[in-house]
Each structure stands twice: as structure tokens, then as C-alpha cells.
């Protein structure tokens, strides 16, 4: 993702100018190197005409916690310390903020809306989030402020992703995972992504690598949005994406094997054997696992590899908290 290489003495004024122009990418941290500072900027034609070198450079993301802290400090004006303890993390997806409001803050919904709008003046919709439901993993939302829509365009990792939270699953917190996988992928790879949703993984990887991706999705509305996203990102993508509408359990057996398989598995679905059988070099398998079961999960994958006659090494990475003691994890399975 782009960064502007600026002499150290000029860093502060340039940063202010970038912010004024709406070109500064506040989600990443700047980095100092010798007499220069790399300032994170968004993908935009205008950054190339500022008179500084623009480089594709890896800058660390600010933890979401820090963004949340801003809301906390704004709300400290109105909420008691006790009430602030109940404040939950929230997400900003395009111009929509989604937040969970616990019963202890039910009477403070108006203040929370005020605080979110103060921290993020560009918001057009604020919604409360419920739980993911059904096979398509769609959340239940209720709009508490703004326009009556759950459709927006989210910008992440240099791509634009059209989402409709009322029709298809999307999780902005997986941004770091998508970036991590894009870094692991090499040009020339053939990649399979079942359970592909509106294509966030496929778009981010194709943005940075010249690869051939086959993606599969069963929710018709997610599939339509995914097709729109391929069009929308058009020339930005180095790689190619073929998108298949259908049930992964029926479609995959008909497909060949791939260098890499990425399985953002829906909760409660067991696609381990199916996805492993399609992977030649790597499988990245997402699942939800109790912290005491992580070793058992690893052993299960190794056993599955053995059954399929594959030599594997497995590293299980905790990706996010799901509920107390249960994590969303990614098993990076290296084959051969
Ligand atoms: C956890 S979501 C991940 C979506 C997307 N990869 C993302 O990260 O935003 C799982 C996705 O699998 C889809 N899905 C569920 N069962 C499926 C099946 N049998 N075949 C293909 N897709 C399926 C759901 O509609 C949903 O979009």
C-alpha cells in the first residue's frame, strides 16, 4: 500500500496537508527511516502529484483498539466511568458504523450516536448489530441513526468492496488477515477460495499478486455483489478472479487441485477434508476453537493429512476473540 517518502523536517506539515486533502491513511502508522519518514496515504491519483516519491511499502496498522479509544474519550464528557466500562468495540464499514449496545447502556444510545458522529463525521448510517444467523452468516442489524440502508462501499487494503450487510456476510476485522495472506502469496499461483462471500480475500490478493483465483459462493446476493466488486476494481487488480455460484460441497469435487486453498469456513461447517484434498502446497483453514482444544484441532488436521497421504506441517494462529475462551483461528497448513 502506498506511502509518501518525505524528508524528516517536512513530515509534520506534509502530514497536515495530506489530512486536509483527505489523502492521509490514518489506519496505518508512519515509519521513520534515517532522514526520511514514510507517511501512509490512500490509493488516489493525487498522491503522485505532490512532488514526493510514492512507494508501495508495508506500514503497520493501528490497532482497532486505538480507534475505539477515541470514542471512549469523547464519551467521557457524557458517560460515567462505570458506564464507559460497558462500551463495546465497534466497526466502521464504508460510511456505516456498527456497534453492539449492551443492556447497561440502553439509555445512552443517543449519546453513543452523538459520540460516533463526532469521531467519524463522514458517517451516514449507525446500526446496532445482532448475531450472525443461518448458513449465509448474515447478521441482524437495526438502524439507529441516519439513512435507511445497509449498503455501502468499504475501502480496505487498496481495494473497494461493495457490501450490503442485510444480504451478505462481511467482516472488516479480517483486514489484517487478508493482508497477511496477500503477502504470503507469490505471483503465478493458482488459488481456490470456497465460501468467498463478496470476495474480500480474492480482491485483496489479486490487487497485489499476479495470480489466478477461483472463488465459490452459495449466497446469490453475495455472489452478485462479488461480481460487481470484480468490475469495480477492474484495472487495479493484477490477478484474475473466476467466480462460481454454487455449493462448495458440490462444486469443489469437480474442480482440479490448486497451489493454495483459503477456506473462510462458515461457523459450524466442517470443510477440512474437502479443502485439504484440493490443496497442493498450502491450505489456510479458518475455524472457531476453544483455547483448550487448539492442540486437538492441530492433531485432527495432521490426521486428515495422513489419511490423504500428504506430509504436512501445521501452525495454528489465533485471529480474533469470538467469545470467552473461544477464538477464531487460522490453521496454516504447509504441504510437502
Ligand atoms: C464466514 S463467511 C465468509 C465470507 C467471506 N469469505 C468474507 O470473509 O467476507 C462464509 C461464507 O460462505 C458462504 N457459504 C455458506 N455455505 C456455503 C456453501 N455450502 N458453499 C459455498 N458458500 C457457502 C456464506 O454465504 C458466506 O458468504
The helix-strand sequence is: EHEEEHHEEHEEEEHEHEHEHEHEHEE
| Cα end-to-end separation | 32 Å
CATH-scheme architecture of the largest domain: 3-Layer(aba) Sandwich
- What is bound: which ligands? S-adenosylmethionine
Report on the biggest sheet. 7 strands, mixed
Helix content: 25-40%
Mean pLDDT equals: 93
Protein name: tRNA (Guanine-N1)-methyltransferase
GO molecular function: tRNA methyltransferase activity
Organism: Thermococcus guaymasensis DSM 11113
Domain SAM-dependent methyltransferase TRM5/TYW2-type: 90-336
Can you give me a brief rundown of this structure?
It comes from Thermococcus guaymasensis DSM 11113. By secondary structure, the chain is an alpha/beta fold. Helices cover 28% and strands 33% of the residues.
Structure, described:
Helix 2 crosses helix 4 (109-119) and helix 5 (175-184) crosses helix 6. The protein has helices at 11-21, 64-75, 81-84, 109-119, 175-184, 200-208, 220-233, 248-251, 272-277, 294-307; strands at residues 2-7, 31-33, 36-40, 53-56, 90-93, 96-99, 125-133, 138-146, 151-156, 159-164, 190-193, 212-217, 240-245, 258-263, 279-290, 312-323, 326-335. The model has no long low-confidence stretch (mean pLDDT 93). Strands 13-12-11-14-15-17-16 form a seven-stranded mixed beta sheet, with helices on both faces. A four-stranded antiparallel beta sheet has the order 2-3-1-4, covered by helices on one side. Strands 5-6-7-8 form a four-stranded mixed beta sheet, covered by helices on one side. 28% of the residues lie in helices and 33% in strands. It has three domains: 2-56, Alpha-Beta Plaits, CATH 3.30.70.2580; 64-149, 2-Layer Sandwich (GMP Synthetase, Chain A, domain 3), CATH 3.30.300; 170-335, 3-Layer(aba) Sandwich (Rossmann fold). The protein contains ten helices and 17 strands. The chain has 336 residues and is an alpha/beta fold. A hairpin with a 4-residue loop joins strand 7 (125-133) and strand 8 (138-146). Residues 135-137, 168-171, 174, 194-197, 200-201, 216-219, 222, 247-249, 264, 266 line the site of S-adenosylmethionine (SAM).
Amino acid at each position: 500500500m502506498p506511502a509518501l517518502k518525505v524528508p524528516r523536517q517536512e513530515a509534520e506539515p506534509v502530514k497536515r496537508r495530506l489530512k486536509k486533502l483527505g489523502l492521509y491513511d490514518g489506519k496505518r502508522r508512519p515509519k521513520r527511516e534515517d532522514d526520511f519518514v514514510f507517511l501512509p496515504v490512500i490509493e488516489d491519483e493525487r498522491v503522485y502529484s505532490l512532488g514526493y516519491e510514492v512507494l508501495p511499502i508495508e506500514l503497520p496498522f493501528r490497532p482497532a483498539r486505538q480507534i475505539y479509544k477515541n470514542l471512549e474519550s469523547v464519551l467521557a464528557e457524557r458517560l460515567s466511568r462505570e458506564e464507559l466500562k460497558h462500551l463495546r468495540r465497534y466497526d466502521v464499514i464504508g460510511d456505516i458504523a456498527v456497534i453492539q449496545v449492551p443492556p447497561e447502556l440502553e439509555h445512552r444510545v443517543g449519546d453513543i450516536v452523538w459520540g460516533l458522529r463526532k469521531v467519524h463525521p463522514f458517517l451516514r448510517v449507525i446500526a446496532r448489530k445482532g448475531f450472525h444467523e443461518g448458513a449465509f452468516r448474515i447478521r441482524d442489524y437495526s438502524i439507529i441513526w441516519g439513512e435507511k440502508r445497509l449498503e455501502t462501499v468499504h475501502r480496505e487494503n487498496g481495494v473497494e468492496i461493495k457490501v450490503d450487510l442485510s444480504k451478505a456476510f462481511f467482516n472488516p476485522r479480517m483486514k489484517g488477515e487478508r493482508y497477511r495472506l496477500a503477502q504470503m502469496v507469490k505471483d503465478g499461483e493458482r488459488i481456490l477460495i470456497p465460501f468467498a462471500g463478496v470476495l474480500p480475500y480474492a480482491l485483496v490478493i489479486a490487487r497485489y499478486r499476479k495470480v489466478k483465483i477461483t472463488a465459490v459462493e452459495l449466497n446469490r446476493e453475495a455472489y452478485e455483489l462479488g461480481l460487481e466488486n470484480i468490475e469495480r476494481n477492474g484495472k487495479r487488480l493484477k490477478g484474475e478472479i473466476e467466480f462460481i455460484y454454487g455449493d462448495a460441497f458440490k462444486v469443489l469435487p469437480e474442480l482440479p487441485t490448486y497451489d493454495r486453498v483459503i477456506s473462510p469456513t462458515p461457523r459450524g461447517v466442517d470443510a477440512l477434508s474437502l479443502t485439504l484434498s484440493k490443496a497442493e502446497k498450502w491450505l489456510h483453514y479458518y475455524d472457531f476453537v476453544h483455547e483448550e482444544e487448539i492442540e486437538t484441532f492441530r492433531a485432527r488436521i495432521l490426521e486428515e493429512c495422513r489419511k490423504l497421504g500428504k506430509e504436512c506441517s501445521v501452525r495454528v494462529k489465533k485471529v480474533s476473540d469470538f467469545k470467552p475462551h473461544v477464538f477464531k483461528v487460522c490453521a496454516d497448513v504447509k504441504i510437502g
